[in-house]
Structure formats: C-alpha cells, structure tokens
Amino acid sequence: MREPNAVDFWRGFALVTIFINHIPGNFFERFTYSGYFLSDAAELFVFLAGWSLALATESKGVPEPPTRVILRLSYRTIEVYRAQLVIAVLALAIISGAALYLDNPLLLEWHNAGLFYSDPVQASVGFVLLSYQLGYFNILPLYVALLAIAPVFILLARFRRWLAFALSAMIYLTALTLELNLPNWPGEGDWFFNPLAWQFLFVSGFLSSVWARESETFRSWAKRLLPLALLGVLPGIAISLWDLKPDPFNVPEPRLLFLFDKSNLSPARMFDFTMVVLAFYQMYPWIQYRLPGLTSFLSALGRNSLSVFAVGSILDLVAQLIRSAEPRSFVLDTCLVGAGMLGLWFTAWFAEWRSRSPRSSLSR
User: Per-residue pLDDT tens for 189-237?
Assistant: First the structure.
C-alpha cells in the first residue's frame, strides 16, 4: 500500500467532489470546487489520470519496454471497460426496481434509461460499444477511450515530447473547430465527454508529470507562476458566482473555441483549470501536516480510484432516487452525503484489505 501522496490526495478530493456534485441540488453541492471555478472535478480527475500514467509506465524511473506498456494499458482498459458495464447494468436494475417499488413508470426515463426499455436490442449493443451511455455514468467511457489511445502518445513522447504535445493539441483544436465528436448510438447526439477534446488534458497531465520529475526549469517556472495563477483564477470565480456565460448564438465561429463548454473542454475551461493547478498544487504539504486524518482518507480513496468511483456512481443514483421520493431537507442531504462518504471509505478499505489477503486463506 502506498503512503499518502499528492496525486492520490487530489484524486481522492476529485472523487469526493464528483460524488457530492452527482446528487444535484443537495445542500453541500454549493461548497464544492465546481461552485467557485469555471472548471470542475472532472478536469482534475482526467489530468491526474494522465499524470499517473507516466508513473505507471515506468519501473524505478526507467521507461518500460513498448510491448509491456501496450499490454499494461490494454489490461487497464479492459478493467475500466468491465467496470463501466457492471455499473451500467446495476444502474438499470436500480432504476427498474425503484419504478416498480414506487409505482412510478416515469422513473424509467431517468438519465437516458428510457431508450433501453423501449429498444433493448439496439440499446444492449450500444452498451457494449459504449455508444449508449446513461447520464452520470459517462466518465468511464471517456477513460476507456483515453487509455485506448494512450500508447500512441506515450511512445511518441519517448521519441520527441513536443511532437506528442503538438499532435494532441492539433487533435484538440481540430475537434473544436470542426465540432467533431463520437456519436451516440442508438440514441441521438454525441458523447457527453468528447474524447477528441479531453485527450488534450489527459496528454497534458502525462507530459507535465514527466517534465515535473525531470526538469528543474519546469518546476521552477511552476513556482514562479504562482502569483499570476492566483490572479488567473479570479475570472473563473466571477464567471461561476455570477453565471457570466456567453450566449451560444452570439459567439463567433468556430463557436466551441469561445463557449464555456464542458463536453468539449473549451479553452476557457482549460485555462481556468491550468490556473487552479498552478495556484493550489503546492498546498498538499501544508494540508498533510495540519490535517493528517483528511490526508489519509482522501489518499486511500485516490489509491483505489476505480473501485471508489464505481461504487460512488451507484450510491449517487440511490441518493438521487431517495431525494426524488422523500421531502428534501438539510437532514436528508446530510444523511445521504454522510452515508456516501462512509461507503466510499469502506470501498477503499475493502479493496486494500482484499489486496493484502492471501488468496489461499480466502479459498479455504
């Protein structure tokens, strides 16, 4: 088990924020990261996934052979893909059970689930292809797509890092300029998280991790930019607090470059997230020293991010259904969020207990 560290801590922070934000309208949502910045925990989660990728494809600081990198990432891709299928099926079962228990067929339309009940044959194929996604269950499909293309950028970066960055930036700008995205099927529209755009943040996280460990100049500039970053977060705070978003019909073409669009990771959100990272990444040692309990809790979540995210997604859906059936109150929100935090902690604890337990003792 790894000791608490900055990457696991901030990844745990992102998981807690995502959990709270996925219970829309709850009392505690107003105090989360997304309530005060233009970017939110989704950007942090993807960036840290890229950052961790650089560490996972090295052994004692030495890059692993290309074949091993491809096999390792293929296994992880399958692992995330499997988790997505499991939680999607569980979500459909929970929605169906709630509709039966509450005698409310309207619940079958929740989070784009209605398509499955009206056309289960095509929807089943769409689930397997990841082209049919339930609302609030669309981050892992993005992660699958990013992991699938990751070997291209990792191996290219070993030849020339600037080429990997340039290719990623070119794909990003092309996707926004031409409004390219992966299509939903059998439904309409496109993926909520556009992989062609979000790969830029993923690759940026990967390259930042490499540069931060190898380049003293990179680390020095990250510290020097702190005052600028503190000023840079102010526009995002103002935009969030006063909802100062541009009218989609009054922006110039290509319009995705000027909107504050989450699905396509608009440049404004990318800039805001960069400023947030530069402004706050140095806070971890301070937090670790003064709040060791919080550090241990969030780091445990971050160490087991896939399991914690999967369980958290299911707990979020249950909490949403409870809030739809019961009178909303501060007490209910406190119980739901508190129970959710306990569930996330137990998931992390169980995953680590399972990894420490000898297989032989469990099979007796």
Answer: 999 999 999 999 999 999 999 999 888 998 898 889 999 999 999 999 9
Q: Which amino acid is at 226?
A: L
CA contacts within 13 A on the Cβ side of 70? 6
pLDDT beyond 60 at 241: yes
Q: Which two tokens stand for residue 4?
A: 């608490």
Longest Cα separation, the chain:
68
Separation between Cα atoms, residue 317 and residue 23, nearest integer Å: 8
Torsional sign, CA 321, 16, 37, 184 = negative
Q: Counting every residue, how long is the chain? A: 364
Instruction: State the Cα–Cα distance between residues 248 and 179, nearest whole angstrom.
Output: 14
Average pLDDT over the chain, rounded to an integer: 93
What is the DSSP code string of 108-144?
GGGGGTHHHHH-HHHHHHHHHHT-S--TT--HHHHHH
Query: How many whole angstroms separate alpha carbon 267 and alpha carbon 66?
Result: 32
CA distance 287 to 12: 14
Its pTM surpasses 0.90: yes
